[in-house]
Each structure stands twice: as structure tokens, then as C-alpha cells.
Amino acid sequence: MLPIQRRVLFVAHSAQRGGAEYCLDTTLRHLNRDRFEPMVVFPHDGPLADAARSLAIDVEIIPLRHWLYFRKDWWYWKNLMGRVMPNIGRLTKLIRDRQIDLVYTNTSAIFESALAARRAGVPHVWHVHEILQPGSRMSQLLPVRWIQRLIRRYSSHVVFESHGARQVFEKTTPLKHVSVVYNSLRIDPADSAADSREEFRKSHGFGDDDIIIGFVGQFIDRKNPLVLIEALSQLKDISSLRCVFAGDGPLKSAMQQQLEAHGLSDQCQILPFQENIVSLLQGIDVLVMPSRQESFGLVLVEAGAAGKPVVACRSQGPDEIVEHGVTGLLVEQDNPTELASAIRKIVTSGSLREKMGAAARVRVCKLFDPVLNTRELESIFEGLLTKTVAAAAVEA
Questions:
Q1: d(Cα 201, Cα 300) in Å, to the nearest integer?
Q2: 378: closest CA among 52, 131, 30?
Q3: What is the residue extent of each domain of the chain?
Q4: Which residues contact 217 (CB under 8 A, 6 or more apart)?
Q5: Using one digit for the tens of pLDDT, what is the confidence trace for 311-362?
Q6: Which of 110, 179, 255, 271 could form a disulfide with 246 if both were Cys (CB 3.0 to 4.6 A apart)?
Q7: Contact, 284 vs 168, CB < 8 A?
Q8: pTM > 0.70
Q9: What is the CATH number of domain 189-367?
């Protein structure tokens, strides 16, 4: 029988706003605090560290190193060589001093927490929020297959956010202890419905009759906002069509140039990162996600909660979130003509938008409930901790 409360160390790769970070924040907000006492390690301070503190959760700052998605320069290598072993030592000491029962690493982008959990002799759960596929275009310290094997070796249990992401991983590296737990909705559908559509539109100069499609995410190659601009160039005959791109990233200048080149500057707006995603989703009519690769795609879930249909390119997460023809449309990647055709089909039919939006809200509430999904993670924790207690009893 497990003690009433067990201590879990959650380890994050960033304290900034992002998909994996929001998923951790949602888990912490719905964690059963009668059963689990959380503590969180962040590599630096930021909004998500402040959010954890607001929940009365202890936060520790340790400058963790990434082995995925890092900038290859001399500063990175200098810090890697000088900090990895001290970081592992600090984490191991923290686990022992705080009598941590289980370590949970919230992304495959970092690795030191897994090594520290092994040194401290406690179970380790690795929650993979990425598509780990040999040949992927990303900065990596080791070949992807090596990283996959190390994840298998240093995990008591591996969690994926979609079946597609799991299947990609297990094509080369089968796992024995593995689960799929969908990411959870982080906004309340009731709040979404209550937000003002008119306020968003007026504040950005849109009219009541404008049909607005939205792109939300980083302006990077993987998210592929440029293909959406190509699609929009084929939809100029729809005079009421408007588009907002909300986010930031290295492709921003190229996007502005392409909008000007296609004569779309008056129809499209590039907005900064939106703190109030509810307001934006309430203001638009259709969400478009043209990504080349998505392990999940949390904004698709958020759009569904707001009752908005979506158009997305086929990849791991969107294939499971979007029910094609029911809650939105799925198209092939890097095909602006097919993307334009799907957008045209939805934006030219108000009844179709309403029908798909209503179906999306039902699907989201069923599959992406934050309480139910957090209970799934807790069940994994409890299973590992029960085994640990049983093993200790046998040794005694």
C-alpha cells in the first residue's frame, strides 16, 4: 500500500510559453495534490516558472542543457562541457535531499534528469513531445537512433502525446513500458464561448462580414506558414477573406515579403504572440495549421474548444485530433493548391463551418479533458511507485 502522498520532481526544458510547457502547466494545475507533492525544475526563470509558483509549488532553477533543438555555437559547447556533470550532480542531490519518489521529464529535448534519476535509484518517466525520426531536420547532440535507445534505457516508462509519434519512435526502437496520453485542453470551453468575437475584430480593424482564417504558432520551417501564403494567393477572388498570423520566428521577414509580392498585405496581418489565445480563437472563423510535422498540435484542440473548424496538413498529431470531414479537413503537406481548395470549401459555407465547429467542441471535450488525462498520468506514476515499494519489500 502506497503512502498517502508521494513526491514527484517534474523537469522542464523551458519556462517560456510553448506547447510542451503548456502541457506541463495543465498537468500541474490538475494534479491530485492529496496523492502527489510536486516540485519543478526549470532551466531558467520565466512565465511558466511563475505559474508554478502561483500554484504553491516549489521551483528550482538549474541551467539544464539541451541535446535537441539547440543553437550550435561555441557558447553551447562550452556550457555543455562545463555544466552537464554539475547539473546531474545537483539534480541527484536534489532528488535525495527532497526524498523524491519519482522523476518526470517533460520533453525529450533534455537528458540530465534521466541520468540523475538513475543515479538516485528512483523511477523515471520520460514524456516525449517530439517526433523522433532519423533524418529529422533539427539540431541534435547525438544521432536520433542513439537518443531513442538512451530514452529506452533510462526510462521506467515512456509517454507519447499521440499514437503517430509513438509509431515513428518504435519503427526503430521498440519499447516495453509505453503509453499514449493526449495533451489536455488548457482553456475552459465555457470561457471561450463567453469571449467577445466583436472585440477582437474591432481591435484589429476587421468588419462583421469578414471571414477570418488564423495561423497560430512559431514562424519556422516546420510550421510552414509560407505555404499558407501561397494558398491565399489562390483565394483572392473571395473578397471578404482575411488572415491573421499570430506568433514570431525567423521566417517573419520572408512572410512579409511574400505577402507584399502576392499583393496580400491589405488582407493579412502579422500579429505578435497572443497572450489571450481565447480572444483570438473566438475572433477567427477557421484555424489553419500547415505544418510539415506535428507531434500533437495543441492549438487544434483549443480551436475545437472555441467551436472553430480547422484545416491542417496531415502529420502525426493532426491526423488524430482532426476527424476529416467532420471537425475539419486534412490535406497533404506542401500542396498550396489542395490547401487553398480546402480553405475555400469551409470559408464559403457558413453552415459547414457551424456544423464542423460544433462537432469539434464535442470531440475536444471527450478526448482532451485535462482532469481525465492527468488521472492517466497519475495512474502511470502509481503503477511505478507500487512496483518500487514491492521491490523494496522483497529486498528487506
A1: 21
A2: 30
A3: 6-184+369-395, 189-367
A4: 223, 225, 246, 247, 289, 291, 299
A5: 999 998 999 999 999 999 999 999 999 999 999 999 999 999 999 999 999 9
A6: 271
A7: no
A8: yes
A9: 3.40.50.2000
